TrEMBL record:
Name of the protein: Dihydrolipoamide acetyltransferase component of pyruvate dehydrogenase complex
Summary of subunit composition and partner proteins: Forms a 24-polypeptide structural core with octahedral symmetry.
Keyword Acyltransferase: yes
Annotated Lipoyl-binding domain residues: 4-78
Amino acid sequence: MSNTVEIHVPDIGDFNDVPVIEIPVAAGDRVSEDDTLIVLESDKATLDVPSPQSGTITELKVAEGDRVSKGSLVLLMELAAHPDAAAPVAETPRAAPDAETVEQARPAPASRPEADRPEPAAGTPGKPSHASPSVRKLARTLGVAIDEIQGTGRKNRITREDVEAYVKRRLTAPPPTAPQGTALLDLPDWPKPDFAAFGPTEREPLSRIARISGPSLTRNAILIPHVCNFDKADVSDLEDFRKRLNKEAGPDDARITMLAFAVKAAVSALKAHPRFNASLDGDEIVLKHYWNIGVAADTPEGLVVPVIKEADRKGLREIAAEMASLANSARQGKLKRDAMQGATFTISSLGGVGGTGFTPIINAPEVAILGMTRAETQPVWDGSAFQPRLIQPLSLSWDHRVVDGVAAARFLRHVSEVMSDFRRLSV
């Protein structure tokens, strides 16, 4: 009897023809349950496929760049000996596993008709969740809060199958129903001219990020009543301070950018004007008492928005280091899903490119987004003469259903005043 089994891509949702971007293991490696076998590109993030059991890899069946789907054969594994139970054995190649057979290492409970098995439902946030360390690790890998899952195991224990079923439902769930009056936008058909009739053309496919983010951007632009305010900040003194901090920094310290100051200024403004740190939920406004700042990052595949969690509790250098690390992961295509979740407010900076202003699209369910372009030296009248000052353009797109123009002007002025005199944060 052979002790070699096939490991397949599990059923965790709408994974069809996604690329393998990393294989951290090789033939001959010993792996433990939940060790990462391959890394896939999913949506704007990466997704680790963990090992469902312990053993030794005997043969890889995929290579970097291959495209896989649910049930694709990943590798062959020689199972590790288990002192307490007979190890599962695949004597002959099997078909792609369904969601109920992904984990072969765990002994099956007393059987009951599949139709009677309860569908894992959403749990109660804040309620203690019973799950093994391996199941908790799987939930973290997939970017799922364990307390959101209702267990179907003994005494409501959360199993691996519960996690996989929950993620599958989340990924395959239909989008929320559009508000009344927006289901049908009586628009003319999109024009389809013969471009080649006017000159040479070529075609290239949209990146995966562009294909996925496009519908969300369209939804946000159409359904959110955007208004944009503009202001500017005199950051001459702040720039001198920034340069001085970087000059004093050690070789291992992160270099502080103007964007790090903007994150702290935004947090200060959000605390002073809490409606900008909110979301609209039907007839209610959800005011959030945490401050997570999304920072848009440009990558070869398109724009992604990693999140600085608990930005109010972090210093400038810590924020700068985290932004650099997240941006590097994004450019390498290794940004994890949970690194892009939970933002309460977003900053989009074009400072490294240029421009004098723009109107960024709000990232729903947030209610505002701050835009920054390149700071430029301009002549400013000081009462007796023109002085060269470094001026930072600022723009704020906001949701008119939640805030109004006066509140937006005050919010943006708050950001401007903090960036013009950073000592205000100590008041």
